[in-house]
From TrEMBL:
The keyword Signal applies. GO terms for cellular component: cell envelope. GO terms for molecular function: carbohydrate binding. The lineage of its organism: Bacteria, Bacillati, Actinomycetota, Actinomycetes, Frankiales. Keywords: Signal. It comes from Parafrankia colletiae. InterPro entries: Peripla_BP_I, SBP_2_dom. This is Periplasmic binding protein domain-containing protein. It is found in: Cell envelope. Residues 40-287 form the Periplasmic binding protein domain. Belongs to the bacterial solute-binding protein 2 family.
Length: 337
């Protein structure tokens, strides 16, 4: 399981040599969409991390459009990118683009998507920093088991846009809940990004069909608001406890208000940006890719009151405690003590 905010930072792998020789190069960051809050947070920390090595980051939003993503890849190749980082884009979705990048000897890092070949961090030309969405949902399941004293009836909105989010629920959340709470029950309500406007009615219908539900889970913070709307439509806003994963500002503000959300498991996206930079630097210097454990933090009423719930704090990663990982990475890169 990923470390919590209070864990000491340990070197994720061996030191990387030759980083200083990369100064002046440009890396292309291609997220699924620059409108996604998490990609905005990651881009900021990625640019900060690579900036310590005097490497520029050029962002090219995929706009959730295959043609646009393909155009970004072509531009990266024509612009002689040193490396490319894809964020929230499945490898199979850009298979031809990856082939072209490999042919141009441009290494690739894919973030926030699992390696389809298993737990391997990748190889010399294509590596992964998958994040920790499954672990976040497992932590959420454990919280529900404890908070309900082993008697929860859970409704979870499972995102069916692609195989990974389905697996996060089916292979992560549900087994974790059953392991911690054999008497708990789970109902899965399937939702899609393409039908975002239908999520409130879908959630309310699922609640009506399962009247004993006392916990409602949104798989990701991006779907927490319409999930809450669906609960509100049934008049059960004060009768059920909401939970989500992501740890984004809007949801933590809702949690602090005491309305619907009672728990949210956040990912330290600032750390993740530095981990993505580290993985790419390893490929660029001929080192083997490694596996990272991005820190998580469970936010509840017990700790939300101490947080500075501002966008600045969200960007900095202050909610997760020490930022000593920055010094850790720069030391590994031979750029600091």
């Amino acid at each position: 399981m990923a470390p919590t905010a209070d864990s000491a930072y340990k070197d994720p792998g061996p030191a990387v040599t030759g980083v200083s020789s990369l100064a002046g190069k440009t890396v292309w960051y291609i997220p699924l969409s620059s409108q996604i809050t998490t990609t905005q947070l990651v881009q900021t920390s990625l640019a900060e991390a690579l900036g310590t090595a005097h490497i520029d980051v050029h962002a090219c939003s995929g706009d959730a459009n295959p043609s646009t993503i393909a155009g970004c890849i072509t531009s990266a190749i024509n612009g002689k990118a040193a490396g490319v980082v894809f964020d929230s884009i499945v490898a199979g979705f850009v298979a031809e683009g990856i082939r072209q990048l490999k042919a141009a000897h441009i290494p690739v890092v894919i973030a926030n998507e699992p390696n389809p070949d298993g737990d391997s961090p990748g190889d010399a030309s294509l590596a992964y920093v998958p994040g920790n969405p499954m672990q976040a949902l497992q932590v959420l399941a454990q919280w529900i088991a404890e908070d309900s004293h082993g008697k929860a009836a859970v409704l979870i909105n499972e995102v069916t846009d692609a195989p990974p989010p389905i697996a996060y629920v089916q292979n992560g959340f549900i087994p974790a809940l059953k392991s911690a709470c054999s008497s708990c029950t789970v109902t899965v309500n399937k939702i899609q990004s393409a039908n975002y406007s239908l999520i409130p009615s879908s959630t309310s219908a699922a609640l009506i069909s399962n009247p004993t539900t006392d916990y409602v889970v949104s798989e990701f913070d991006a779907f927490a608001a319409p999930t809450q709307q669906g609960v509100q439509q049934t008049g059960k806003l004060n009768a059920v406890k909401g939970a989500s994963a992501g740890g984004l500002l809007a949801q933590l503000q809702t949690l602090k208000s005491g309305t619907f959300l009672r728990a949210d498991v956040g990912t330290n996206f600032a750390y993740q940006g530095w981990a993505m930079a580290d993985q790419l630097l390893r490929l660029l210097t001929g080192a083997a890719p490694i596996t990272y454990q991005v820190p998580l933090r469970l936010f509840t009423a017990a700790n939300i009151g101490s947080l500075d719930l501002t966008n600045q704090a969200q960007i900095s990663g202050d909610w997760y405690g020490s930022t000593a990982y920055k010094q850790m990475f720069t030391r590994l890169w031979g750029l600091g003590n």
